[in-house]
Each structure stands twice: as C-alpha cells, then as structure tokens.
Amino acid sequence: TGGDTVKEREESGGDTVKEREESGGDTVKEHELSCGDTVKEHEESGEDTVKEHEESGGDTVKEHEESGGDTVKEHEESGGDTVKEHEESGEDTVKECEESGGDTVKEHEESGEDTVKERQESGGDTVKEREESCGDTVKEREDSGGDTVKEH
After folding, report:
1. Contact at 8 Å (CB) between 71 and 89?
2. Domain membership of residue 50 as a residue range
3. β-strand 115-120 against 16-21: which pairing, if any?
4. I need a labelling partner for 99 at 20 to 30 A (CA). Which of 4, 12, 113, 118 fits?
5. Which stretches of sequence are listed as region Disordered (predicted)?
6. Residue 69 placed within a domain
7. In 3-state terms, what secondary structure has residue 8?
8. Are residues 90 and 151 in the same domain?
9. How many domains are contained in the chain?
C-alpha cells in the first residue's frame, strides 16, 4: 500500500498488535486489547510519540510525549467534554477541560503544591480558583469588561 509495511501479531492474552511503518518515516502501532479497548501509538519521525487509547466506554485518550520532555494527555469523554493534561518537564501539571457547555477549565498543579483552576466561561468571563497548600481557596474573576474581582 504505497510503501507502507504492516505487521500483525496476536499475543497470548488475546490482544492483537498491528504495526504499520509509513513511507514518510512514521510508525503506527495499534493494540487491540482483549477487554475491547484499542491503543494506537504513533511515533512521528520528528521524535514526538502520540498514544491514542479508545476505551470501550466510548472515551478516547490521546497521550503526546513531546521531544522536549513534556507529556500531553487529551481525554475525549463520551459526554462531549475534552480534558487535556499537560505534564511539563519542570514538574507542573496543567489539566484543561473543554466542557460540552462551552466553558474551558484549566487546572494547574504547581510543584509547590498550590492548585490553580482557570475557567473560561462561554459568556467571556475568566474565573481563576487557587487552592493554596495551606488550605485557603482564592477565587479571582475577570469579567469580559476587564474588571477583576477577588474572592477569598
């Protein structure tokens, strides 16, 4: 098929592994698990690795290992939400959830133990919620008009 090579292997546990080497230098591994999930792993010639996990419940998880050491996980839930989780090599974790209602929630776990949630509401407001390691929660709301309100 146009220079592609396909290898298919059935493992003893009942899993099936398909490996396809594309003519452009990419390698795609597709792993059909006996539980009904499918895991796709895409090694791009530019050194990034993309793993895509289709769960039998209808969710899809994409995991992107960037050559700089960052890991990005993207979780498409069957309800329509998308969750992106970004593990930076400096130990921070950023989760981004695009809700089906149009809001976007970013959750930033800093290595110093604070957690920052940032919600962009479909109306244009931005709400930042910081859970401090001492147990306090600070909410900061930026209106679409540019005002900032802090709620402690």
Report:
1. no
2. 1-57
3. unpaired
4. 113
5. 1-152
6. no
7. strand
8. yes
9. 2
